[in-house]
Amino acid sequence: MAWLIAISPVLGIIAMAMSASHLLPVFTSLVLNDGTTVLFVSSMLVNFIFGLALWLATRHHRRELHIREGILLITLVWVGGALFACVPLLWGLGLSFTDAYFESMSALTATGATLVAGLDRLPPSLNVWRAELQWIGGMGVIVLVVAILPMVGVGGRQISKAEIPGPMKDDQMTPRVTQTAKGLWIIYFALTLACFACYRLAGMSWLDALIHSFTTLSLGGFSSHDASLGFFNSLAIEAVAMVFMTLAGINFATHFMAWRQKSLVSYRRDSELPYFLAVLAVSVLGITAFLWTKGTYPEPLTALRYAAFNTISVATNTGYATTDYAQWPVFAPLWLMFLGTFVACSGSAGGGVKMIRAMILYRQVFREFNKLSHPNAIDPLKIGRQVVANQVVFSVLAFFFAWLATLVSMTLLLTLSGLDAITAFSAIVASLNNIGPGLDHVGPAGNFSVLSDFQTWVCSITMVLGRLELLTVLVILTPAFWRK
Amino acid sequence: MRIVILGAGQVGSSVAENLVSEANDITVVDTNPERLKTLQDRLDLRTVTGNAAHPAILEQAGARDADMLLAVTQSDETNMVACKLGATMFNIPTKVARIRSADYLSHPEIFSAENFAVDLSICPEQVITDYIAKLLEFPESLQVLEFAGGRVSLVAVRAFHGGPLVGHELQYLRQHMPQIDTRVVAIFRQDSPIIPEGKTVVEVGDEVFFLAATENIRGVMRELRRQDKPVKRVMIGGGGNIGRRLASAIEHKYEVKIIERSKGGAERLAANLARSLVLAGDVTDEELLEAENIGDMDVFCALTNDDENNIMSSLLAKRMGARKVVALINRSSYVNLVQAGQIDIAISPAQATIGTLLAQVRRGDCVAVHSLRRGAAEALELVAHGDAQSSKVVGRRVEQIDLPAGAAIAAIVRRRGTPAIPGATGAAARDSDVIIAHHDTLIEAEDHVIVFVVNKRTVPRVEKLFQVGVGFL
User: Fold this and answer.
1) B-chain residues within 8 Å CB-CB of A376?
2) B110 to chain A nearest CA, in Å?
3) Parallel, antiparallel, or unpaired for β B324-328 and B2-6?
4) Single pTM value for the model
5) CA torsion, ordered B120, B124, B127, B128, to nearest 10 deg
6) Is there a single domain that holds both residue B294 and residue B323?
7) Of the residues B224, B249, B278, which one is the last residue of a structural domain?
8) Nearest to B267 among A375, A376, A380 (CB)
9) Does the interface ipTM go beyond 0.85?
10) CB-based burial label for A269 (10 Å; 0-12, 13-18, 19+)
11) Among candidates B267, B271, B280 on the partner chain, residue whose Cβ is nearest the Cβ of A376
């Protein structure tokens, strides 16, 4: 209990901040007069009063947090944040609590899975709210993965402490989390602004540009249209989206370094980046060739257009679609889902295993091979020129096992509740890796509203598990965590 | 010459040993009195115990009227400070420092006269690494030495059955390869030198030294022995300073396996090297060598800091089928013992590095010196200054020069067009012609003349020839 009281003031502040973030939809509804002003203002007040009360009641107990309290706080921020944020969705969309919570969790984890149909007819301020939640979620995720998790060392995250090249090291990105967070947010904000301008120039309306720039940079994937980006059917908009999705899929620490040093050297030093780009490029070309030879798109350039956009979108865990790619010959959508599990770089808002862990796992396999043929060899696992400590490799292996176990058990849970295999599997892959749409019933053409309440909760939990890198959440469930 | 040597470690003592024999006045400074005592017992020199970077110690060592300061202690910093002191306090004209850290070496400006005042920096480990890397490039050779910034190479090769020239007179080389100009400068048969003439017959087992423009080396080598397969796989025994440098220098060119005894050392190696396979184990462990396919290795280099270990492991490697074995051997008596036996090449670190220093000690304008055959012979690159009156070489044909017996002018590197800048090397030397010397070749002013001296005792007379007479001044 003492812990909960210690972290309560922080939660109170977060609820108040969440209340402040209602200002944007309030403003939108005032300008567009879409009749949701009362809704948002009341939600804002609920949040504010709750936060203030929590803060006032517990503010004297505020102190430096221990690592365990920190871990608990991280989980509570997302679980509680989704709770605060679901109020307008609950009232405004007439959703059940289960569904509203799912939608707001999907937003805050930057997943992008939705169970709202008829997005085009929604009051614009609600779409703004959904997009803004993703943007805020992405902001939180980036600070979490770049600054906080490396400090805690979850799932081999400590590697990125050493990975951060150059002057950063003596600057110690970690002890001054606030400073780092500010720097990262400046980058995030600047990229969002650039993305907004590009979308506007490419022909989107002000509102659409705002919503989509929010959900592009956070790799969230909410759209204000049921047809997602396919609605616009504009090559220019797709190109802008592809560029910014790729940029947002890169480690933000690398962007940060480039900005601080005013040079592009940090991109060359980023050991994940070449693999990230190579996997994307090879997959785009491969899927283009596949779709073309299968006759899905008789024109090679059309095939390239659709393959490139949807591949980048799913691989970076954004989840936009320009077509119902679930209808492609089955290899292609499965390949996309597979990419979505590992392609995003470690310091981005993308989900899944992350490229760096995939690289470590891959090298570890070859290390075992090497051990068989050269028993005396000293063969450290290296990423770039950096030696990865065995401890980190073990953490990564543990993370990967937890990831796999979650994937399997949650899929089984969904099939147990009566869902068909492809829908269940793809829904879990999409939730666990924060991709957004799955395949079949939950594919880009359908949505998650087909799920029962139980299944919706399973997906909500899976999203937060995946978002917070599994172990951060799972550790809370262990008795050792609560032992004094 | 009055020389102060700082540091009586491996480099310091071998340099002292080499220089003492040339009638130099030597003082050695070290912090370890025992080391100095063994040195003093063996050689005719003066010793001073103390920190080499302290002014008082330098003063005591006679820095005030020294001609040269050789700072070769283990510590780069001590060496640099000593050079600076040598410059500001004692005005020593030539200051040489051993600098090992690549970090210092990548900023040459810190060695300038107003900074640390290091006239020449040497890194013995790097010299040996380059030396071995060169041998791997020409696996048939025993030694490859460069002159004139790499334009001319002196190569030692053992003549084998099957070489077109073997069993023939040297002049046959001319007929056989009219387009390539080369000169055989010496032949060592059973360790005694033969001054080659046109009628000299090359026999199996002869160690032939020839000189040619670097691009022609392969062609000449083919005349003396069948070409070996190019080196592909290299195993290095010992991951110390030299082993590590060598591995990182060649790992992108060859398949490299490197064996290091200490676990910690092996881990550090593995962290630093990009592609080499690092093995933890003993270089004399037969099972390890067997497991790592020693029989398929093109070259095995034993580079630990233990002579006996190097000899034993390279003998073992040879017996187990390594095509060629190279051993690093510090003790000169061992070198004589094993060279030309089972071990293909014995490298003496002292001999490999002494050349750079000797070039500083030599009188006359000496650009490069290579010490050969354990210091018995020497090859020098000297610059001919002056004119026909003041110099004993300029304006004369090779046959007119009064060279001592056993010394031969092998080649001349002449700058194209305008007379060369004195002491031109490197970039300037590339802009020049290589002339293989014949009896009627005329030597001009500012030519770089490469002289091969079979017997080191005659070196002073050669130096003297190249000194400009008083009249010139």
Assistant:
1) 279-281, 288, 291-292
2) 24
3) unpaired
4) 0.78
5) 170
6) yes
7) B224
8) A380
9) no
10) middle
11) B280
- Spatial separation of the C-alpha atoms in residues B133 and B249, rounded to whole Å: 8
- Element (DSSP H or E) covering residue B442: none
CA dist A57 and B383 (Å) reads: 91
List the single residue in B with minimal CA-CA distance to A367. Answer: B277
How far apart CA A241 and CA A230 sit, in angstroms, is 12
List chain A residues with CB under 8 Å of B279: 374, 376-378
Same domain, B154 and B79: no
Q: How many residues does chain B have?
A: 473
Return mean pLDDT, chain A: 87
Q: Which member of B263, B271, B278 has the closest CB to residue A377?
A: B278
**Residues composing chain A:** 484
- Establish if A379 touches chain B: CB-CB under 8 angstroms: yes
B135 in the same domain as B112: no
B194, amino acid identity: I
Instruction: Sort strands B192-194 and B182-189 into parallel, antiparallel or unpaired.
Output: antiparallel
Same domain? For B170 and B77 the reply is: no
User: Is the same domain home to B104 and B148?
Assistant: no
Domain match, B31 and B106 both: yes
User: In this complex, do B271 and A382 lie within 8 Å of one another by their Cβ atoms?
Assistant: yes
Instruction: Summarize pLDDT for A343-396 with one digit per residue, the tens.
Output: 999 888 888 899 989 999 999 999 999 999 898 898 888 887 788 888 888 889
Contact A379 B266 (CB under 8 A): no
How far apart CA A290 and CA A288 sit, in angstroms, is 5
Select the residue from A271, A369, A376 to test the B interface by mutation, using most B Cβ atoms within 10 A.
Answer: A376
| Residues from chain B contacting residue A384 (CB–CB below 8 Å) | none
Per-residue exposure over B200-224, b if at least 16 CB sit within 10 Å of its own CB, e if not: bebeeebbbbbbbbbebbeebbebb
State pLDDT tens for residues B97-108.
999 888 888 888
Query: Is A2 in CB contact (< 8 Å) with chain B?
Result: no
Instruction: State the Cα–Cα distance between residues A220 and A319, nearest whole angstrom.
Output: 7
Into how many domains does chain B fold? 4
d(CA A270, CA A345): 10
Which residues on chain B are in Cβ contact (under 8 Å) with A380? Answer: 267, 270-271
Closest alpha carbon to A468 in A15, A65, A73: A73
Query: Which residues lie closer than 8 Å to B187 by C-beta, 6 or more apart?
Result: B193, B194, B196, B200, B202, B206, B207, B208, B209
How far B280 CA sits from the closest chain A CA (Å)?
A: 6
What contacts B463, CB < 8 A, 6 or more positions away?
Answer: B362, B363, B364, B366, B382
User: CA nearest B282 in A: which residue?
Assistant: A376
Number of residue pairs across A and B with CB atoms under 8 Å?
Answer: 34
CATH number, domain of B11, equals: 3.40.50.720
Cβ contact (<8 Å) for A378 and B281? no
Which of A301-305, B89-93, B444-448 comes out lowest in average pLDDT? Answer: B444-448
The CATH number given to whatever domain includes residue B179 is 3.30.70.1450
Q: Is B271 on the interface with A (CB under 8 A)?
A: yes
Here the tokens at position A44 are 């804002």
Residue B227 belongs to what H/E stretch?
A: none
Residues B360 and B466 in one domain: yes
Q: Which domain holds residue B77?
A: 2-122
Residue that terminates a domain, selected from B224, B243, B265:
B224
Tell me if chain A has a CB within 8 Å of the CB of B291: yes
Structure tokens at A17: 């901040």
Residue B278 gets the label, from left (phi > 0), alpha (psi -120 to 50) or beta, of beta
A195-239 pLDDT per residue, tens: 999 999 999 999 999 999 999 999 988 999 988 999 999 999 999
Distance separating the N- and C-terminal Cα atoms of chain B? 21
Of residues B260, B270, B292, nearest to A380 (C-beta)? B270
